[in-house]
Design goal:
Structural class: mainly alpha
Strand order of the largest sheet: 3-2-5
Oligomer: single chain
Distance between the termini: 44 Å
């Protein structure tokens, strides 16, 4: 099946839409960066060594030493081919499939790793890169899925940051009081759902601008948790202890080389993330409930005409979305074995919103974008542990946010949000 589709002329005017140059230009610029910045100034005799196994793996895979210059030229040629295809598709007014940005991103990351590791007595630990990326993506995935649920019903959820933080706080407190990380995990969605109730109460019931309500709720949760941390948790040592969800390796699957320990030797929160992605994708696009939610987000008046309760649908989906984000907030405490700290969500809610937009309000697309951002953050951490690999620390700190801006501004292009989001419905 072809992954490129031809854009049709506008039905009203009969005129073809203008050529969209955003993606081709982005591909060409990054290809030139890889060519001029990485390839032309690399010594011919250097090698980069990739490590694919850890000490705990049953099957040890030997390290792979790649000639840096040959590898860079190979990746640059792949990037140039994708850039050429994207340019051709733009001239023909066609949209490229998901494989083009995926292949281009893989080639660019490989080129960057080859350049970073060239000529240095360090290994590029592939399992560490992948495992850390998955772990750091957990709250982003839950937050992005929450945004998809809410906005598909017409409610903008800017309060994901507050829902993540509230879930982290309640999970830590309940887990400490009950000495059970699983009970704390079960309590985390309650905090997110409560924030969702406030969002839908003011945004849907009283028609307050949902963006303003979301920002206010974020400030409220940050202030409330900081106050409780400074008073209640500081005065009661047993209320903020470390409780960790144990890893639950899946037999046989966890023994797969490289990917097995990364994907299938995780705690229950990661497995819940897998299930949430699949269930939400199926429910949104393959069920009557999903059809009703999308109808409410696109044309609430038409949905009301055929008997769908618009207000109730928005209430239910927003609260469910808040609970989903609260569950993701448990990663910061019981999911990572840490005690609660002030503002420990650290802007993940806003990055989750960017992942939702990059994924075009689709659960699978949002997960892919969240994994991209998680990988960029973990890459900065790994490079920092390697001594910076010749890159200033300031650039390592800004790497995740630079990737976020580049991805949203350079690759998203024209996207259309649900038509009725942030529009109050008056029956």
């Amino acid at each position: 099946m072809s992954t490129a589709t031809t854009t049709r002329p506008d039905e009203a005017t009969g005129v073809m839409p203008p050529v969209r140059w955003r993606n081709p230009v982005t591909y060409i610029v990054l290809t030139l960066v890889a060519l001029l910045g990485f390839t032309l100034f690399t010594e011919a005799q250097t090698h980069t060594t990739f490590q694919f196994s850890t000490r705990g793996d049953l099957a040890q895979i030997p390290n792979l030493a790649v000639p840096v210059l040959a590898g860079l030229w190979g990746t640059v040629l792949v990037m140039a081919a994708v850039a050429g295809y994207a340019t051709w598709a733009a001239l023909r007014r066609r949209s490229v499939g998901w494989w083009a940005p995926a292949l281009f991103g893989l080639a660019f990351v490989t080129a960057f790793l080859l350049w970073v590791g060239g000529g240095r007595d360090t290994l590029i630990p592939v399992p560490t890169l992948l495992g850390g990326a998955l772990a750091l993506s957990v709250p982003l995935v839950f937050g992005a899925l929450s945004g998809v649920m809410c906005e598909r019903s017409g409610v903008i959820n800017i309060a994901i940051e507050g829902q993540l933080l509230g879930g982290a706080f309640l999970a830590a407190v309940v887990a400490s009081l009950t000495t059970s990380a699983y009970v704390g995990l079960a309590a985390a969605p309650v905090a997110g759902a409560l924030v969702g109730v406030l969002l839908v109460f003011f945004g849907v019931r009283y028609w307050v601008d949902q963006i303003i309500v979301g920002v206010v709720l974020n400030v409220l949760v940050i202030g409330l948790t900081s106050f409780l941390y400074s008073t209640v948790l500081s005065e009661n040592d047993g209320w903020n202890n470390r409780q960790d969800l144990p890893d639950l390796p899946i037999p046989f699957l966890s023994d797969i080389p490289v990917l097995g320990p990364v994907l299938f030797d995780q705690n229950i929160l990661v497995y819940l993330m897998y299930a949430a992605v699949v269930v939400l994708q199926v429910m949104l696009f393959r069920s009557r409930w999903g059809l009703r939610v999308r109808a409410v987000g696109e044309h609430p008046k038409a949905a009301d005409t055929v008997g769908i309760n618009v207000i109730r649908t928005r209430w239910v989906t927003t609260i469910m979305g808040g609970a989903l984000a609260g569950l993701g907030g448990a990663f910061f405490t019981v999911g990572s074995g840490l005690a609660f700290g002030r503002e420990m969500s650290a802007g993940n809610g806003y990055i989750a919103l960017a992942a939702m937009i990059l994924g075009k309000w689709n659960p699978v697309g949002a997960v892919a974008a969240a994994l991209l951002f998680g990988f960029s953050r973990n890459l900065a951490n790994v490079l920092g542990a390697m001594g910076g690999a010749g890159i200033p620390g300031e650039f390592l700190l800004m790497l995740p946010y630079a990737v976020t801006i580049l991805a949203v501004a350079g690759f998203v292009g024209r996207v259309r949000a649900p038509a009725a989001e942030n529009q109050p419905y008056i029956k």
